[in-house]
Amino acid sequence: MAAMTLLSTENLSKQFGGLRAVDSVSFTFLEGEIRALIGPNGAGKTTFVNLLSGRIPPTEGRVVFAGEDVTRLPAHARVNRGIAYTFQITSVFAGMSAMDNVKLSAQRRLSKGLFGPDPALLERVALSALERVGLAARRDEIAGNLSYGHQRLLEVAMGLGLDPKLLILDEPTQGLSDEEIAVFVTLVKEIAQNASILLIEHNMDVVMGLAHTITVLDRGRILAQGTPDEIRRNEAVRRAYLGK
Amino acid sequence: MRSRWANKATVLHVGVIAVLFALQFVLPEYHHVNLARVMVLASFAMGYNIAFGYTGLLSLGHAMFFAAGLYAAGLMAQFAGVSAAGGLLLGVAAGLALAAAVGCLALRTTGVSFMIVTLMFAQAAFLATFYFGEYTRGDEGFVIPSHLRHLFGLFLAEPATRYFVALSLFALCLAISFAVARSSMGRVLAAIRENEERTRMLGYNVFLYKLVALTISGAMSGLVGAAYGMLFGYVGATFASIQYSIFPLLWVLMGGAATVLGPFVGTLLMFYLVDISSGFTSANMLIVGLALIGLILFFPKGILGSLRERAAPWLP
After folding, report:
1. Are B212 and A88 spatial neighbours (Cβ–Cβ below 8 Å)?
2. What are the structural domains, with CATH classification, of chain B?
3. Which of B11, B8, B18, B157 is closest to B84 using CA atoms?
4. Span B241-282, pLDDT tens digits
5. Which candidate from A75, A107, A117 shows the least CB-CB separation from B201?
6. Contact B46, B174 (CB under 8 A)
7. Cα–Cα distance, A126 to A99 (Å, whole number)
8. By the CB < 8 Å criterion, does B190 face chain A?
9. DSSP string, B229-244
10. Which residues in chain B show pLDDT less than 50?
11. How would you label A223-236 residue by residue, b for 16+ Cβ within 10 Å and e otherwise?
């Protein structure tokens, strides 16, 4: 394949006491992909992406991003390299306006030297991120007062403000209505034109509709990997989901 | 809309400084001295507010930064003949260096642990003033020789000069707070206060930002400590005691944490509350306590914090 490897892991493992939450996962992720990461509850999906984003250190193994070994880099440095993570539990800054939330995500990369970014430029970049998720009209509303669906969209806008190479979305459609999910799917397709996307998702319609490739995790290991059709037909995946 | 708010806020703060400037010509002597003292102490509270109000770092050890400035200026005057200008610079340097060093260690902790660690460092600093009693004269303290209390030819013990220098210090600290509150860095500090982990995942080195905030706060406290010594002429261990760590916390809580003018409002009210109530009764702390309970019941975010929430969202 012509596409470049954006992210790979080698034998990545995480041990919590007696539990091996992630067990020797070797994983390759290509530039431009929309990859879904699925698996039954407790399969280690969130732990795995936490290892990728650097929120927790691995017990063993390596993470390589854009050709650089980032295993020892702290989370904030990985964000600066282009790995953005949106939270499973919505965690926007509830006391600030929607605009300030997005400004926070964009101002670091736009800052040159000590004096922060050019205010007009920052305003423009933040507004365009809000426009892309359809929240521009609510720019001055306090984030905590937005509806749940809008808070999730604001999370995505904050991800966009980071201008990431890889956007990790952790269960983004959880708690959204069908209409909101439809909006969200369109949005992800649009974002995928400029960034690669790793999606943890339980909603199979969303997964099948969006993902180029699906990786199935079960008990900390990769159980299967393939196109949506291959995964749908895979016996082992059915067993893992439905029980033996 | 934003810029009009910004103008309104600028007018308010410049106005406060103008009113304080004008007051010196009308106040009776007793209140004249008091207000000079309140402005200096409010500057200390503004320094504290950078760490506690804007960044959410609840320090119980700011007396050590104040005392670092006070003793740096006082001891260098006493033993090396350094006068006020040098003393103020030494005060900034001492507060800044101590805050950076303590921050590197204490900021490895958060929440209650951070409170305890800062408290321990401050107690160690307090006890150090006794350990080196040969120079500091401990509790008893010492008086800074009056010939050294000169700044650019002005004699600081002279009431009008003292008032003017106190006002200048106050204006400087107000300007620093205003700049921090308005800056893009201020936005990051507020984000850290609201949700540290989320801020980290936006690519910010949270530890570094907290260290910078604490260092600015410590440097301001050190400057004010040095100024206090030079303006009022006395250096003693009381200023390093736990009381002087709690005072700025109370003043800031009373006036409104993370508001630029809150520390001044809190300091002024608390000062006069103690002053007036002690004229009526020896149980004046009871009145202060009741006032604090009322405050928590009716203004949980402090006076200006609650005002901002209810009526004036433009207040920085």
Report:
1. no
2. 12-310 (1.10.3470)
3. B157
4. 898 999 999 999 988 888 889 999 999 998 888 888 888 878
5. A75
6. yes
7. 7
8. yes
9. HHHH-EE-GGGGSTHH
10. 1
11. bbbeebeebeebee
Measured CA to CA, the distance from residue B242 to residue B251 in angstroms comes to 15
List the structure tokens of A138. 């609510």
Phi, psi of B82 (to 5 degrees): -80, 130
Binary contact (A79, B187; C-beta < 8 A): no
Alpha helices per DSSP H over chain B: 2-23, 29-49, 62-80, 84-106, 111-131, 133-136, 159-182, 184-194, 196-200, 206-232, 243-255, 262-280, 284-298, 303-310
Among B74, B114, B304, which residue's Cα sits nearest to residue B214? B114
The count of C-alpha atoms lying within 13 angstroms of the C-alpha of B152, restricted to the half-sphere facing its C-beta, is 4
3-state secondary structure at position B288? helix
Give the per-residue pLDDT at B62: 95
CA atoms within 13 A of residue B32's CA, in its CB half-sphere? 14
Write out chain B residues lying below 8 Å of A95, CB-based: 190, 194
Cα A10 to Cα B131: distance, rounded to the nearest angstrom: 57
What mean pLDDT comes out for the span A229-239? 83
Tell me what the pLDDT averaged over chain A comes to: 87
Residue entry with tokens 């500091």: B136
So what's the pLDDT on residue B72? 94
Does B202 touch chain A if contact means CB atoms closer than 8 Å?
yes
B187 touches chain A (CB under 8 A): yes
Partner residue opposite A76 with nearest CB, options B184, B185, B205:
B205
Chain A: closest CA distance from residue B81 (Å): 37
Asked if the model's pLDDT at residue A190 lies above 80, the reply is: yes
Q: Which residues of A touch B (CB under 8 A)?
A: 53, 55, 74-77, 79-80, 84-85, 87, 91-96, 100, 103-105, 107-109, 111, 116-117, 122, 158, 162
Q: What is the pLDDT of residues A29-50, one digit of tens each?
A: 888 899 999 888 888 888 999 9
**Secondary element (H or E) of residue A157:** helix A148-161
| pLDDT tens track for A13-27 | 898 988 888 888 888
In DSSP terms, A169 is beta-bridged to: A86, A199
